[in-house]
Design brief:
This is Peptidyl-prolyl cis-trans isomerase. There is one protein chain. The chain is α+β, with helices and mostly antiparallel strands. 39% of the residues lie in helices and 16% in strands. Strands 1, 2, 3, 4, 5, 6 and 7 form a 7-stranded antiparallel β-sheet that branches. The chain is elongated and about 100 Å long. The chain is built from 6 helices and 7 strands.
Amino acid sequence: MKNTLSVRLVPLFMLFLMVGCSKTPVESPQAQVEEKPSTVVAQPETVVEETDIIGDLKKPSKLEDRFSYTYGYLLYSTMAQQKGFSDLQASYFAKGILDADKGQGFYTQEEMSQTLYEVQTKLLQIAQEEMEALSTANLKVAEDFLETNKKRESIKTTESGLQYEVLVEGEGEHPTEKSIVEVDYQIMLLNGKIIDSSYERKQSSTFLLEAIMVPGFIEGVKLMQAGAKYRFWIHPDLAYGKEGTETIEPNTLLIIEVELKSIREGR
């Protein structure tokens, strides 16, 4: 989700850089000249027919013309598809390009920077609102599931709310947070999507247990003995919480299967 926000803001960051490097001159106020009554007889106005220099262009054949058209087409299409840019005005977009080519536009660099800042603020607000809505929805899904899951006969629930199921019993000592454990594991979402798996990598993982950033995982592994295999259902508060990660949405419930292969004490 964080990537989504980053993608939205990339065009703006690029525009900020371009505005900062732009040499668009600041328009100076024109000197006021006192007008004197005219003695010239007014002539009928000549009507000048305006032409659409863009709309009247024909399909290009030269490489530089084809590239110019293609670049403009793709740039506008990409921006228009992003949330927050859906109201992009094609006519003013084209006008801005033409004025930039002439080196004379409606606004100063400072005014354009202010406009970009206002749009960035708007996009951040939209992203924040979407993130909060997603977080609330995910939390409800997680808690509804856990409320039903805990009623299953094979499910045990700890005081923290961690739910687990013993698939294979182990034997021996239990690890502590200071233990170095060797495990095989698989992390899944409620929809069955696997987001990490040592089985797929075909290589067990060995690490200091307290170094893991998921409290529910640490608590669960401490319940195990060597040779055991458990399945855990971890409430978002015991996982990545409201923040989520690059690949895990905020307030997402995690399902983790863990096979504890060995335990040794850390230094």
